[in-house]
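Journal club prep — side note

Before the paper discussion, L.F. wants everyone to see what a predicted structure for a comparable chain looks like in token form. Sequence:
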Amino acid sequence: MSDNVRTYTTEHADDEQESESEADEELHCPECGGQLATDTEHGETVCVDCGLVVEADEIDRGPEWRAFDSREKDEKSRVGAPTTNMMHDKGLSTNIGWQDKDAYGKSLSSRQREKMQRLRTWNERFRTRDSKERNLKQALGEIDRMASALGLPDNVRETASVIYRRALDEDLLPGRSIEGVSTASLYAAARQAGTPRSLDEIAGVSRVDKDEIARTYRYVVRELKLEIQPADPESYVPRFASDLGLSDESERRARGLLDTAKSQGIHSGKSPVGLAAAAVYAAALLTNEKVTQSEVSEVANISEVTIRNRYHELLEAEDGIAMN
């Protein structure tokens, strides 16, 4: 038995040495040991030092055309868009363009335009074959609309779409509105991605009220067992500072104030939005940048009273650290 193991180990070691030597040959010139470079124009791999052509007539797997900007790239590309969860059919169906032009860019006649409009109508009907697909299409449209209004990136929209699909598959929608579940999905996705929006901001662009969003959000998170960390006040600071036109120094100072508040335990039980707004306001004053409480209140969508209260608590915590 031991002889078999020894034989297998030896063979395995020999195979590894052979693969390493082959990889080394691929990276270095077999004649002089110099570095190899790929000449894409001639389809050759040559040695930089001695000029030996190691490989010729290589296959170029890229496109045969060149593009110098994104518009030209889109025009010349002959493949479709990648699949995405942000569309109810994942982008696999065919869309009929809204431009009434033929392949040569010429305008269609009135009769052809009417025909294309009928084709678009029937194509749209066939894309949603049952009530579940119509539900999903409406919800994903809502998610896209709200995400655009809140300035959320594509990865958040994709995650929100996946969360909504899971809720639909696990039959969580009966007794709840499509708008409520789609809003809760977007709220959860934004928090998961580390780009949270406050409940007031979410409610401002949603078609349902704040209480229903909070209730549906708790239900969806519980039933789908989503792992969502409590919102960090620091994640709101860059957006508030950007909207107020503050400098990088003010943003760093705001982060420092929040770090001090965390070390002192002041953040416990407090609204992360209120703490972030107060930290930005305090940092602006400490760096001699003129910002009023009303401006911060408007950007953060939180009352001036909350900003004043958190502002005093942050400065007291900072003074306590300084005295120690």
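L.F.'s comment for the group: DSSP finds 13 helices and three strands in the chain. Keep this in mind when we get to the figures.
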